[in-house]
Design a protein that fits this description.
The protein has 496 residues and is of the alpha/beta class. It is built from 17 helices and 18 strands. The strands form two sheets. An eleven-stranded mixed beta sheet has the order 1-9-18-17-16-15-14-13-10-11-12, sandwiched between helices. It has a seven-stranded parallel beta sheet with strand order 4-3-2-5-6-7-8, covered by helices on one side. The chain binds ligand LP7C6HRI and potassium ion. The site of potassium ion has 11 residues, from strand 5 and strand 6. Ligand LP7C6HRI binds next to helix 1, helix 2 and helix 3.
């Protein structure tokens, strides 16, 4: 089975590099390997002997670019090298390789991009540390205006490798060659949209060096959780596959709960029940078949229903209303030692009140599924959670604060666990941005938790399955379609 793909921030990458160097490989060998991989990629993008412009910045990213330039020149390409700084100003390994460049250099602003078949962008990589201005900014502007293909070294210059942010301006690349491991900035938005195709070159950083980096951020893909997805055995009983309870809103707000319930059933929960306010029983009853229905009059009603020990996973939030009653429902659900998914109104009802969900809030597995707006409202007054520029870090801090898995939704959904693991989702589709889509997602999470998946694996698997279903359908998708698309995705995963 494939191992989960670890993503390293530039800081973690430096630790991995240091580990390789400690074991005896000189840093310049890593740089030679990196530059050679860039040259290999360049050759795939141009015709033999083509004109190539390499623009190199002042750090080690520039060093990789100079190695690539040297290789390509040796291989018969007409290469010109533009430098952001002075040739003598390089330090470290870049200074060593800069001495080997056998020809002239020009300043970046003197490099003529027009006749080039390819521009190689080696201005900045993992060491980008501030907004881009002046000559570097003008160079990036010219690269983007040139209209030709760009091959980025490690990261498109201007993209922050940790956060995916554009630091003032960024190169739009057709292809990016990165080294040893992808970086979060290749997946997080907007960075992802600047990278083009991203390939990872092996430059001699081993898996033990990657581990030495301390990185705990992964690409959200089946390798991370496939083994945990349950397969019913020949003698399994429906209650062994869990019993999900979904709290419904009032008479005019019942659809969200039914979407979540249907998704929980489709993902394999043995039994699913909608807990409905008395006035909404009629409308719910008219539209439920395999899903069971029980009357539930507010927090006391929920408390009474939870006497049934077989109910092992709860969904609280969708369309419940932003009220003190919803807060009371959450309190009852939180006190019950059941797996719990909190979404939408359950989170917004705690606007600025996250501290009520802190410290001993839960001992049973819990998942929260806010989008950005809900996240900001919930953690109002918590700059330590809201301020980090990395979405991964924000989700991680929220997870640690609440002792719950945090699913921070968006086109680059991040799933983070209280123990520090995090995953960035990459199979999303814009078609998922449709009313009720989030309700389906929390039903899938609860359905997987009911089947005993740990909260992090359940949330990560659910996000991926939900996106895969949406992408399979494409244009015209509505949320009612999503639960019906789950079987095909599940069968693809389980091979049955
Ligand atoms: N295993 C690997 O991944 C290897 C990676 N290599 C390459 O090294 C770079 C990282 O090198 P580093 O010197 O740390 O950083 P940069 O080259 O990205 O830039 C640092 C350089 O730029 C200056 N600077 C930073 N931000 C700005 C700005 N906004 N404006 C102007 N100047 C800026 C800073 O002061 C430094 O001078 C990595 O990406 C790989 O490409 C190794 O070659 C091999 C192993
Ligand atoms: K670059």
């Amino acid at each position: 089975m494939n191992a989960p793909e670890l993503l390293l921030t530039p800081r973690e990458m430096r630790k991995a590099d240091a580990s390789v160097i400690r074991s005896g490989t000189p840093g310049v060998t890593l740089m030679q390997n990196a530059g050679a991989a860039v040259a290999d990629a360049a050759r795939e993008m141009v015709s033999p002997g083509a004109r190539i412009v390499v623009l190199a910045g002042p750090g080690q990213n520039g060093g990789d670019g100079i190695v690539a330039a040297t290789r390509l020149r040796e291989q018969g390409y007409r290469v010109s090298l533009g430098l952001l700084g002075k040739r003598e100003a390089f330090s470290g390994d870049a200074a060593l390789v800069a001495r080997e460049w056998p020809s002239d250099v020009v300043a970046v602003d003197g490099a003529n991009l027009a006749p080039a078949e390819l521009v190689i962008d080696a201005l900045f990589g993992g060491g980008l540390s501030r907004e881009i201005e002046g000559a570097a900014r003008a160079a990036i502007d010219r690269i983007n205006m040139s209209g030709g293909p760009v091959l980025a070294v490690d990261l498109p210059s201007g993209i922050d490798g940790e956060t995916g942010a554009v630091r003032g301006i960024a190169v739009r690349a057709a292809r990016t060659v990165t080294f040893a491991a992808r970086k979060p900035g290749h997946y997080l938005l907007p960075g992802r949209t600047f990278c083009g195709d991203v390939t990872v070159a092996d430059i001699g950083v081993g898996s033990s060096d990657l581990q030495a980096s301390g990185g705990r951020t992964y690409v959200n893909a089946p390798a991370l959780w496939r083994e945990a997805i349950p397969r019913p055995g020949p003698s399994s009983h429906k209650y062994e596959r869990g019993h999900v309870l979904v709290a419904s809103g009032g008479a005019t707000r019942t659809g969200a709960a039914r979407l979540a319930a249907r998704a929980a059933l489709r993902i394999g929960a043995g039994v699913v029940t909608v807990a409905s306010p008395p006035e909404a029983l009629g409308v719910n009853a008219a539209q439920l078949t395999a899903i069971m229905l029980r009357g539930c009059d507010g927090p006391e009603g929920l408390h009474a229903i939870l006497a049934d020990e077989r109910l092992n996973a709860l969904v609280v939030g969708p369309a419940l209303g932003v009220t003190a009653v919803t807060r009371a429902m959450v309190a009852v659900a939180a006190q019950a030692r059941r797996r719990l998914v909190l979404d939408a109104d359950a989170l917004t009802s705690f606007e600025g009140l996250a501290s009520e969900l802190h410290q001993g809030f839960r001992s049973a597995p819990t998942v929260i599924t806010p989008h950005d707006g809900e996240f900001t409202r919930l953690f109002k007054g918590h700059p330590d959670i809201l301020d980090p520029s990395s979405k991964v870090e924000r989700a991680r801090r929220a997870a640690a604060y609440l002792s719950a898995v945090a699913v921070l939704k968006g086109a680059d959904t991040v799933i983070a666990a209280p123990d520090g693991r995090a995953a960035i989702n990459a199979n999303g589709t814009p078609y998922l941005g449709t009313a009720g889509s989030g309700d389906v997602l929390c039903g899938i999470i609860a359905g997987l938790m009911a089947q005993h998946l740990p909260a992090f694996e359940a949330a990560a698997a659910a996000v991926w399955i939900h996106a895969e279903a949406g992408a399979a359908f494409g244009a015209g998708l509505i949320s009612e379609d999503l639960p019906e698309l789950i079987p095909e995705v599940l069968q693809g995963l389980l091979g049955a």
